[in-house]
Amino acid sequence: DKILEVRNLKKYFNTPKGLLHAVDGVTFSIERGKTLGVVGESGCGKSTTGRVVLRLLEATDGEIIFEGKNIRDYGKAEMVKLREEMQIIFQDPYASLNPRMTISEIIAEPLIIHKKCKNKEELQEKVAKLMETVGLSERLTNTYPHELDGGRRQRIGIARALALNPKFIVCDEPVSALDVSIQAQVLNLMKDLQEEFGLTYMFITHDLSVVKHFSDDIAVMYLGELVEKAPAKELFKNP
Ligand code: ADP
Ligand code: ADP
């Protein structure tokens, strides 16, 4: 059961040096509830692929099929639902989050934008539940992200991504900014959440050791192309 199929995806950027083929005809699919690790050196097009799949960026060409339906054929209401079902976790959530918002405000924001709560009490309850889910202590509710260490900041990013009950999450270098010991904690949390909520992950990283144990399948990108895709077990098998 494939939750996502991507066919011949292309994303070109106009740059001062000419047209840059950041993603150049990439095809892959992801099974529901599984993790696809997307690896490759910096600049090979991993992040752009993830952003095009999420439609944070518009594709130059290609097909994105989510839940069996081409995204091009989604109507307006379906598109709103899609924005809830697909989420992203960034490398450093603090960089993409408003530093003047408290943790609870950051987590509440998607719930407010998507009108998921009838009143303030329900909102507070949901935010408290999300904080508990990602292991953030209740006493941190009114603190600011810059007051926390990287691991806790990333837990905010994860809670925010979970707020709208997503099915599919693009994880864009989610642990790359963290100390190795903290990396393991965040990866374990993500693994538990995957099982609890049946999440599908597209896990982008330049660090093979991070996805080695975490991914079911691994896609290797090189200069905008997908040059290899195999089960993680096969790729890391000793010769
Ligand atoms: P990766 O995630 O593998 O490090 P990216 O997807 O971020 O790679 O980038 C792929 C290529 O596209 C790089 O050469 C990068 O400089 C370029 N690129 C990314 N975003 C833009 C943009 N908005 N405008 C122009 N070039 C971009
Ligand atoms: P970079 O990876 O280049 O450091 P960011 O991760 O901060 O950049 O953000 C990249 C893009 O994603 C920006 O265009 C930003 O507006 C958008 N963006 C940031 N946060 C979100 C979010 N929570 N949901 C959707 N889009 C976002």
From TrEMBL:
Q: Which residues form the signal peptide?
A: none
Q: Does the keyword Transmembrane apply?
A: no
Highest taxon in the source lineage: Bacteria
Write out the coiled-coil annotation as residue ranges.
Answer: 113-140
Q: Name one GO biological process term.
A: peptide transport
**Per UniProt, which keywords does this protein have?**
ATP-binding, Coiled coil, Nucleotide-binding, Transport
Q: Where does the ABC transporter domain lie?
A: 4-239
Protein name, per record: ABC transporter domain-containing protein
User: In terms of the whole protein, what range is present?
Assistant: 3 to 241 of 324
